[in-house]
Amino acid sequence: MWDKLLAAHLSDRPAELKKAKENGVKIVGYFPGNYVPEEIIYASGAIPLCLMHGGNPRAADVALSVVPQIICPFARSQIGERLLKKNPYYNMIDMLVAPITCQHLKKVAEIWEYHRELDIFKLGIPQQYGNAFEVEYYTDRLKVLRDRLQAFTGNKITDESLSNSIELYNRMRELLRKISFIRRTSPSLLSALDFVKLNHACCYADPAFVVKALDSIYQELKHMQPTAENNAPRILLLGPNLGYGDYTVLELVQAAGGEIVIEEICEGVKYYWHDVENKGDLFHSLTKAYLVDRVPCAFMRNSAKKRLDFALKLIKDFNVSGVIWYELLCCETYDAEAYLFAQRMEENNIPMLVLESDYTTAATGQLKTRIEAFIEILKG
Amino acid sequence: MIELLKLCGFEEEEIKSELPRIEKSFNKLGINAEDIERGKQRLKKYYDIELKGLRKVLRLCVKELVNAVLVRDEGDDKKVIYGFMSPGIDLIFTALVSKSNKVFPISQSWVFQIVVGCIFGKIEPIMEEAEKKWLKAGLVAHCANIKTLVGSLTLGLFPKPDLLVTTGFLCEAAPKTLDLLHELYDIPVWFIDACKDRESWEYPEPTDRIASLTAKSLRRLVEKIQEVTGVEITDGMLSDVMDAKDKLGDALGRLRELVESSDPLPLSPSHENIWMCLNSLTLSMEGIAEATEAINTLYGELSQRVARGLGVVEKGAPRVLAILPAGQTDPRLEYLACEVGIAIVALDTNSEAPYKKRSKDPYMRFGLQLQQAPLDLTLTRRIPFIIEQCKKLNVDGVLDRYHAGCRSVVADALIIKEAVKKELGLPVLVMEWENFDPRVYDHEQFRRRLEVFKTMMRKTLPEH
Asked: Can you give the pTM of this predicted structure?
């Protein structure tokens, strides 16, 4: 039932946001990658929206009038969604918080800034965090973000409002984590497509509503028993990006008889493995959770080994028999890492398939053939 | 070989004493007799080797490459440190070599690209080697600068270093490459931290916030280098190096001003990559003085050329500002522009955006300066800076050959074109390009495009 309510909520969400805007509420967009603590935005009384539409070739194509094809299709989509003026979320934001992460998304923010399209805050992310001055840099930027949001919304962000916000988002992360753990059963009680859509809903839906929905779904799932064993190979999906709407690979794997049981994606899957400590200096807690304790994306220094170790842990915890590495064309850091991961997976006797997409439908046939062959191999 | 070395500014006596080492290093690099013949031809064709100042600079480049190749073969136990895509590391390296001969720090890719790429035209096998690893050819468009590093290291052309340093001032491909070199080949690596989060209202002055991150991170690097080498580097040493480097920078600036302001153009832009390399060489304090003297010599020689009205293109040729540095492994495109009759008078990367802030702390001084480098400016400042340069140089067009492998600059290309057209009405030729991969060079296609560009400039602009 809750999945239907959530779908209805998302369908009504643009109208709801429009109304909130008319009532003076600010809508603050931010780019994915899990380096922007939306808790701060929410505590300011603004509505946070994670801009992460992807998979639509039209949006990626239309951006070619602004940037060359070597910019990845997801980053181009962010430009394209604004140019097409059809996506309500992209056209209603009052401010953008742009985390300085990968070159591609960084450039999108720069281009929007250059065209003076909206108020932009660049959230500097030091690319390593082994030194106190690097950690402080990020914390300071978070505090500047707080000040900027206070001025922008006219609302003071108090310790109490921030703490309440952290509590809400911690609950969201906890529920996503619990639902994710339920997927360890065989066969999984929730398809990857359903889980990713649920995860993606967290980026656009009202957080309080989504927490209720997740709780209800979790209650329902935890009392369910897996059906009889199937022989679907259990797969880990790795890669840089899975945009809202970029579901082709998930659908093809499912159709081919495979089962993606866990995802490790930098941009496009809301990170839920760690909570934010809700006591003491809350900005310190946010820094710890969003920069230090988390699994770093590939643009961070010394990140390959940490992500690899985490992937191997997921493989063990989720009883995975194969890895699909899904990257977007022209994503140079993940493309480089794919080489290392493939070697290490081979050493661990885990078959790995590398797929690339530029969102064009022309590539789907080839993806399908390769996925089917891979799943046949996994089935033995 | 001897003729080649003479073309590169070596004197008889030095050739006699250094020849065995040079031959040994060239053998290691796979440079054979045929390559040396080609090298002589390319030097004569693409470079003004009759200029004594240029020959002096080429000599410094060849010497540095030879030393780098042989560093582990010559019996001593020097600590070897490589810098890659690390602006500012040359300052630390100069301080190191000025104090100790037990350390060999070098940003070897630059000299490797100039000597093996530009002079011998033999960089392709290195690219192909890297493409057998993770830097595959094709649509991903991995930067070929990185391919030269990976290819040369995995082929064993340079010894495994005790430390390999990079930063992410410009890109994250370089740090990712080091991340993999560490994981796959156990090479000790170090990263200078950086953050490009400058906001539009923070221009035109550099921000203390970003400079401070750079400064602190550089201090950590120096601590690490001290740990690896046992050599102490003081703030005073770095300040002295920066002062000396400023003099070299001033000499280069004077040279460039002469080139920019002369008609006909007195020197081909194919030399630009050599000046860039010169700035990155690991020179001792004496070496910096020698390099400065070489540039001053060149200035004198070019002044005479200008006084006699001589040039490499016809007088009145359309004047062009080129975006991004000259081809780093291949001088042909810049040379072709001259052949077609286009005067590339300057590169946008030659000058930094002006600023007033100063610091006595050498690390902060560098952190402030770095932010004003054209490629470190975000679009809101980079575009106006390019427009200012076009006006100052009174150019007739802009050649925007964007380095496709570099995500940091690639997205600016079309926006630069629109802005220059809109604000100045100048023609802009946008060319997809790879600054480090000679395989992209297509003589006929480039010639045709440059000829059309020249015609466009003639049509849109008037009386010079």
From this structure: 0.95
